[in-house]
Each structure stands twice: as structure tokens, then as C-alpha cells.
Fold this sequence. Notes:
With 383 residues, the chain is α/β, with parallel strands linked by helices.
Amino acid sequence: MKGSWRIATFLGIPLRLHWSFSLVFLYVLYLGRGDAWDWLAMAWAIGFVLALFACVTLHEYGHAIMARQFGVPTRDIVLSPIGGIARLDRLPSKPMQELLIALAGPLVNVVIAGILGLFFFSFSAETRELLFRGLILQEHNYLLPQLSFWSYFLISLFFVNVLLALFNLLPAFPMDGGRVFRALLSLWLGRLKATFAAARLGQVFALGFIANGLVQLYNSRGSEGYVQVFIGLFVFFTARNEYRHVLMEDTLKKAQTGELMRTEFTPVYLTDPMSKILSLYDRGREKNFLVFDHWHNLVAILPEEQIQEAVRIADLNVPVSNYMRSEMLTLREDDSLATAMKWLNHSNSGALPVYNQWNNLVGILDSAGMDGFFKQGRRRRSA
């Protein structure tokens, strides 16, 4: 993710911090200055924020560890002011797998709350009620029992983990509860329709967050409500983007490579000078080329980036063999575009040859063709 830095790696999964995370501490300092906190209160607040995000990190590792059980790797975990996100390499293949992965995060918070709850429930019922009213409802703060610094710290962390578990289980996609909702719907409707329904429900919740935040902004004359508005906007647009992603993924699975491949291409040969390739390249129709030997056997690919490199260093009198890439994957014309995109990204060659069922070379599929497909898809969705 752009604007994030790796700060650690646990269980083989990088933990990253987004630049905006610093805004959390600036907000704490802003509150402290406004309420005239002393240095001890400021240290307590910053320490509590760090403990809170430690719980958020464990929450995200809960998702990642469960995903690993189903063979789904996690690219990294990114922390930002609104929480964390475990970026999986792909969606799990089965709805029940997605359900278990989604539940694993809140379950971590339940476990943490259960451990801290042993301390909380060691107090009398009257004391627990006063703590709940004072710390959560912000009522009757003057009646809070006299407890130690660490007691308040642990009890506050207990309440926060309970709230994290409950909040994440709201059926507001793309939060965990929304993913559980989608997974259950997928059992009957399939992933695409289930994602559409879950995304729409998530957007309804998002509008509720935004409306509540705006009311708070109005009543507090601009001092409260920012967080709710920000969360609402995040949920609204993330839900929309998730549906678009699943829609494109579904389209890629249904379309075939043969529908998008380019059947007309100019063969180039091992001994052709790069200057000749540049003249073909400058025509604009072809950016990546298939390379053949003198017996017309396909032996390599000459990708666009290699042509640009030859131009950059003015190395145009050398043969194609100096810049071609011999390691190449191949596609069949009946392969799905999802498979084609996967192999294109994996090969990093910019283009792949396409064969028919009789192993005859029938075309070439390059990144330019895939980009055109995605642009058409975006135009259809915006129309």
C-alpha cells in the first residue's frame, strides 16, 4: 500500500504503518491541550492508544492465520487511524472459508476481552455498573470508584475489545460482519449477487454513520462527529469498490482468452536488429513481440520495457537476442481471462503466446489488450 512502511514481520506476514497513523497521536495531543491534561494523563492516553492498536493488530493476524489454514496467503497487514486491514492475496474459494476468516478477527477480541474480563468481574456489581457508566456512557464520572492507574487501564481495554468485537460484527460490508453476511448469502445466491446485496446494506449503514456524524457536528458546533463521518465515507466507497472488484473478477472468469487475443502480429527473429523493432514499435499497433528462430519456432518474447531500455541507452544495433526473454508461459485460447491475467502478472513479460487445442500458435495476448478490456468495463459501469 502506498504511503506505508514496514515496521515488523510476524509469522512471515509484514506489518505496515500508514503515514496517516500519526494523525492519531496528533489528535490525542489536540485533546490533551484542549482539556489541559498533565504529562501523566497524556502518557496514559498515548499508552492506551498503543495498546488499542496492539489489539487491532492481533485482530488482523487472526484473519491472516485463519486464511493461511485454507491456503490463502496474506500480503501484509496495514494499520491506519480507522483500524487495520489484512490484505489477502485472493478471496477464499468457498463461502464457509470466507465466513471463518471473517469471524476469526472478532474472535481474537472476544478472547482478549474474556481474559481481561476476569479482572473486571472480580469487582462488585455496583462497582462494575459505575465503571460502565463512567467509562463507556460518560455519565456520573464523579462517582467512579478510586482505582489504580493499571486497573482503569485494563478495564478500559476490556470494554474496548468488547466494542471492537461488536462493532466489527455489524453487517456493514466490508467490515467483518458484512463479510459474514456475504458468505451466508453466497451459499444461495453466489458470490456476485451476495456481494451486491452486502455492499448495498453496508452503504445503508454508512449513510447512517454519516448522518449521525453530521448531527453531532451540528450540535457540537464542529467539535465532534468527524470520526463517524470519516468511517461512513470509508465504508460507503469501500463497499462500492469491493462490488466492482468482484464484478470484474466474475467477468474475467466467464470471458476467454481467445476473445481478447490479437491474431495479427509481426514475427521478429533472433538476428533482427533492435532498430528494426523500434520502427515497428513506433507505429503504435504493437508494443510486445514474439521472437522466432530461423526455422520459425517461437523461442522468446520481446517485451515493451526491454525495447524502451534499448532506446534509453541507444543500444539499437544489437540483435533482438540481446533483449528478449526466453522464459515464457503460454495460454490456450479457451483459458479464462482470470487465468490469463494471473499468468501475465506472474511472467512479467508483458505478453503471452496463445495456442489452440491442436497446439497451433493462433495469437498473442498482451497487457495492452487487458488494459483495454478493463477500460471498457469501467465505461460500461459508469454508463
